[in-house]
Amino acid sequence: MLRSVRFALLAVSVLAAPPAFADDAALAAKLVGDWEGRWEFEKVGDKVTATFASAAGNVLKGTTLWYGTAVGDFKDAFTKAKLKDGKLTVPESTMDFVVTVSEDGTSMTGTWTSPMASGTVTLKKRAAAQ
C-alpha cells in the first residue's frame, strides 16, 4: 500500500512538472543557423547578424556582428546563451541581449544592453542555402 502511494505521488509530481527543459532544448536546436536583423537606439539603428553555431540542451554558442554602433562595427562571441521558457538570454563581452523567440523559432524580439546604452533588437532566421 505504501509503495503504491509513493508511486502515485511520484507519478503526479512528474506529470505536474512542466517539461520546460525538453521544450527549450528542442527550440534551442531550431535556433542553430544564421540570423539577420536590426538594432535600434532612439532614432539610430543598423543591421545586426547572429550565428548560433551549436546548441547543447538549452545552451547556445555563437557570434554576433553589430553594424554602425557608436564604436563602429564589431564582432562579439557568446558561449553561455541560455533559452528558458522561450526567452533567450545572450551574455556577450560587449553587448548583451535578451529576446523572446517566436513559437516557430524563426524570429526573435527583445532588448540589447551595453555599458553605455540599451535599445531594441529584432532578428529573423535566414533560410538555409539550398
TL;DR of this structure?
By secondary structure, this protein is of the alpha+beta class. It has two helices and eight strands.
Strand tally? 8
CATH class: Mainly Beta
Order of helices and strands: HHEEEEEEEE
Multimeric organization: single chain
Give the biggest beta sheet.
8 strands, antiparallel, barrel
Named at the architecture level, the CATH assignment is: Beta Barrel
Question: What's the overall geometry?
Answer: globular
When the domains are counted, the total is 1
Low-confidence stretches: 5-21
By secondary-structure content and strand pairing, the structural class works out as: alpha+beta
Task: Provide structural commentary.
- The structure is a single chain.
- This protein has 130 residues and is of the alpha+beta class.
- It starts with a helix and ends in a 5-residue tail after the last strand.
- Strands 1-2-3-4-5-6-7-8 form an eight-stranded antiparallel β-barrel.
- It has a single domain, classed as Quinohemoprotein amine dehydrogenase alpha subunit, domain 2 (Lipocalin, Beta Barrel), CATH 2.40.128.
- It has helices at residues 2-16, 20-31; strands at residues 33-41, 44-56, 59-69, 72-84, 87-90, 96-101, 107-113, 118-125.
